[in-house]
Structure formats: C-alpha cells, structure tokens
Amino acid sequence: MKFLTRLPVILLGLAVANASAWSNHTVVTYRALENMPEVANALPVTVEPLEAFLKAEEKAIETVLANQESWARANIASYAQRPD
C-alpha cells in the first residue's frame, strides 16, 4: 500500500526530469540543420565580444529601438512608455 501512495510522487519526479529538454536544445538543433544547404554552405561567422558589437552597431541599434518605441506608442493602447 505504501508503494501505491508513493507512485504518483515517483511518476511526477520522472516527468519533471523531462522539463530540462532545453538544456541540450542546441545539440539537437545543430544535428537537424547541419545538412541544410543554407547552413552547410554558409560562410564562417566572425566572433567578436558583445561590447565590440554594441559599440560598432550603436547608431543602428539606437535607430531600431527608437522606431520600435514610436510604433509601440502609436499602436498599443496599454503600452507603458519608456522614459525619453
């Protein structure tokens, strides 16, 4: 009888173990996409520090964010505006 009362807890514990599926998502995604021509024939990507990228793209990022902010202010009634 004790086993039957503990069985739901054991099953729940096994179900929770599957919740970590995203931790290895990149491995599965890589294997699924590696043979696509768009991926297989793509040129290598230059790796750079995040700070360097942000500094190089500062004006473009500023423009994108300003456009998104003005669109949100004009089209979303309940939008909490960001300070100017």
Walk me through the topology:
Elements: H1 2-17, H2 25-33, H3 37-40, H4 50-56, H5 58-75
Structure explained in plain terms:
With 84 residues, this protein is mainly alpha-helical. Helix content is 64%, strand content 0%. The protein contains five helices and no strands. The model has no long low-confidence stretch (mean pLDDT 86).
Short description:
By secondary structure, this protein is an all-alpha fold. 64% of the residues lie in helices and 0% in strands.
Question: What labels would you give this structure?
Answer:
single chain, 84 residues, mainly alpha, 0% strand, flat
Poorly predicted tracts of residues: none
Q: How many β strands by DSSP?
A: 0
SS content category: mainly alpha
- Radius of gyration from the CA trace? 24 Å
Instruction: Give the oligomer, counting copies of the same chain as homo and different chains as hetero.
Output: single chain
Q: Please bin the fraction of helical residues.
A: 55-70%
Sheet having the most strands: none
The coarse silhouette is flat
